[in-house]
C-alpha cells in the first residue's frame, strides 16, 4: 500500500522516467506494473471518488508480454515507451492543475493582510452610507471606489487596483427595473444595477464565496446562480448589522460584535 503522505507526483514521475532506460523486457514489464499500481493507489488515497484512478488505468499499458512470454521486438519496445511517455504527460498535467488549485485554496484560507472590505453599491447612497458607517463603527476599514483617487486610470483599472481586499459586501438595491420582453410593463420588478452584478461575480472568483456577503432590499431580484453566497436581508430595523458582523468574523475579519448591536 502506498504511503500517500510520503509520495508526490514528482516522485511518481521520476519512477516513470527510470522505466525509459530499462532494456530488459522482464524487468521493464514488472517495474511498469508496480508503477501502475502505485500511482493508482496514490490517486485513490489522494483524490477518492474523483475518477482519476480509472482514468489512469485506461491509459496505454505495457506490451512487453505477448503469448505468455517476454518480447524484445523493437515494435513492442516502441509501444512500451509510448505508454510510459503518455502516462508521464498525464501526471505532468495533473501536477500543474493541482498546483494551481492548491495555491488558490491556500490563498483563500488566509485573510488578506490589509483586512479591508470593499463595498459594491449601486445608486442607493443612503444604504451605502449606512453600511459604511456601521463597518467603521466595528473597526473595519472600507473601500468605496468613487472615494479613491483616479490617478489617470480607467474605471476598470481603478476597480481592479482596489480589489485586493479581504472581504466584499455587495449591496443589491432596486435601482433598475426589469421584465421579460413578452411581459407587460406592470410586471417590472426592481433589480440591482448591472455593474453590481458584474462586481459580485468578480469578487466570487477573486476571493471566494465565503468572503462575499450580499445585502439585498426586500423585493429586489436576487441572482439565482450564486449558491453558497451569504444573502442577508437589508431590513430597516437594523437586524442586518449583526448578521453582517457574524459573516465578517467567520471570514477572519476582526470585529467587535458588541458594537454590532
Concise structural overview:
The protein has 261 residues and is α/β, with parallel strands linked by helices. The chain is built from eight helices and nine strands.
Uncertain regions: pLDDT < 50 for 5+ in a row?
1-6
Q: How many β strands by DSSP?
A: 9
* Class inferred from helices and paired strands: alpha/beta
Number of domains: 2
**What overall form do the CA principal axes indicate?**
elongated
The largest sheet, given as strand count, sense and whether it forms a barrel, is: 5 strands, parallel
State the main characteristics.
261 residues, alpha/beta, Rossmann fold, 2 domains, five-stranded parallel β-sheet, two-stranded antiparallel ribbon, 8 helices, 12% strand, disordered N terminus
Furnish the topology, listing elements before pairings:
Layout: H1 9-19, H2 25-46, H3 52-57, E1 65-66, E2 69-70, H4 74-109, E3 117-120, H5 125-137, E4 142-143, H6 155-161, E5 167-172, E6 176-178, E7 189-191, H7 194-207, E8 212-216, E9 230-233, H8 240-250
Parallel strand pairs: 3-4, 3-5, 5-8, 8-9
Antiparallel strand pairs: 1-2, 6-7
Helix pairs in contact: 1-2, 1-4
Amino acid at each position: 500500500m502506498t504511503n500517500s503522505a510520503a509520495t508526490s507526483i514528482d516522485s511518481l514521475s521520476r519512477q516513470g522516467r527510470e522505466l525509459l532506460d530499462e532494456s530488459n523486457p522482464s524487468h521493464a514489464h514488472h517495474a511498469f506494473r508496480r508503477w501502475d499500481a502505485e500511482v493508482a493507489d496514490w490517486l485513490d488515497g489522494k483524490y477518492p471518488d474523483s475518477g482519476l484512478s480509472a482514468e489512469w488505468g485506461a491509459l496505454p499499458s505495457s506490451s512487453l508480454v505477448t503469448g505468455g512470454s517476454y518480447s524484445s521486438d523493437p515494435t513492442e519496445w516502441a509501444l512500451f515507451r509510448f505508454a510510459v511517455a503518455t502516462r508521464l504527460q498525464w501526471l505532468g498535467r495533473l501536477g500543474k492543475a493541482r498546483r494551481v488549485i492548491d495555491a488558490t485554496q491556500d490563498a483563500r484560507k488566509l485573510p488578506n493582510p490589509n483586512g479591508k472590505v470593499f463595498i459594491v453599491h449601486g445608486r442607493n447612497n443612503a444604504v451605502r452610507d449606512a453600511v459604511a458607517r456601521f463597518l467603521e463603527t466595528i473597526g473595519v476599514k472600507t473601500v468605496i471606489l468613487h472615494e479613491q483617487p483616479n490617478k489617470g486610470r480607467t474605471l476598470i483599472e481603478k476597480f481592479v487596483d482596489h480589489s485586493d481586499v479581504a472581504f466584499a459586501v455587495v449591496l443589491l438595491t432596486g435601482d433598475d427595473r426589469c421584465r421579460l420582453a413578452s411581459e407587460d410593463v406592470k410586471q417590472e420588478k426592481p433589480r440591482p444595477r448591472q455593474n453590481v452584478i458584474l462586481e459580485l461575480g468578480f469578487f466570487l472568483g477573486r476571493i471566494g464565496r465565503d468572503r462575499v456577503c450580499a445585502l439585498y432590499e426586500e423585493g429586489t431580484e436576487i441572482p439565482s446562480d450564486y449558491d453558497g453566497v451569504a444573502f442577508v436581508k437589508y431590513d430597516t430595523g437594523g437586524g442586518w448589522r449583526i448578521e453582517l458582523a457574524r459573516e465578517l468574523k467567520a471570514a477572519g475579519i476582526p470585529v467587535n460584535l458588541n458594537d454590532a448591536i
